[in-house]
Design goal:
Structural class: alpha/beta
Strand order of the largest sheet: 3-2-1-6-4-7-5
Number of domains: 1
Largest sheet: 7 strands, parallel
Helix content: 25-40%
Radius of gyration: 17 Å
Length: 180
């Protein structure tokens, strides 16, 4: 099977810290690209260039691209098997624990202080929500959705040899812990 093509779409994000944290999550969970709409993020990034770099090296290869329209302007994912999934508190949405993730997906997240427009919801293949009390932070929501996708994937993490390779590749250079 071909590797999954996964993209994240952010609707008019306002916080450079959130976008950097989303990029880090994208690197951690092997997302191909992150798209955003609106002018708030680039303006905030210009006005506050000294923000802490949360993206780290794991996300340096993740494409971050500003677009006018998330669905129409994701060319590397534009194929018949791409599913559009909106993540939003919307009536009749599917609870994330019950959701089965598609192979190729564009996950769309609303702004920190707003919601996804009905016109985008109507074009989605699925609308899911994280069943929390109250709204989570944008970057936290992205992490939860991507972890849910990983946890439900067909990846086999039971092999200690493969798991140890991943651990050695992923951990900090100051970490050399082993479980005996």
């Amino acid at each position: 099977m071909n590797p999954a093509k996964i993209s994240i779409g952010l609707l008019n994000p306002k916080s450079p810290e959130n976008v950097a944290s989303v990029l880090r999550a994208a690197g951690n969970y092997r997302v191909n690209s992150v798209f955003y709409t609106g002018t708030r993020y680039p303006r905030a990034a210009r006005l506050n260039p000294c923000t802490v770099d949360m993206s780290r090296k794991v996300s340096k290869d993740i494409a971050l691209k500003g677009v006018d329209h998330l669905i129409e302007e994701t060319p590397e994912n534009a194929h018949d098997n791409l599913s559009i999934i909106c993540v939003e508190f919307a009536e009749n949405a599917i609870a994330l624990p019950e959701y089965r993730h598609p192979h190729d997906a564009l996950y769309i997240f609303g702004p920190e202080d707003g919601t996804i427009g009905q016109n985008i919801i109507d074009r989605a293949d699925a609308v899911v929500y994280v069943p929390t009390v109250g709204c989570m932070n944008l970057a936290a929501t992205v992490n939860v959705v991507l972890y849910d996708r990983l946890a439900k994937s067909s990846n086999d993490f039971s092999s200690s040899l493969e798991g140890n390779r991943l651990i050695r590749k992923s951990r900090d250079i100051n970490n050399c812990l082993k479980v005996d």
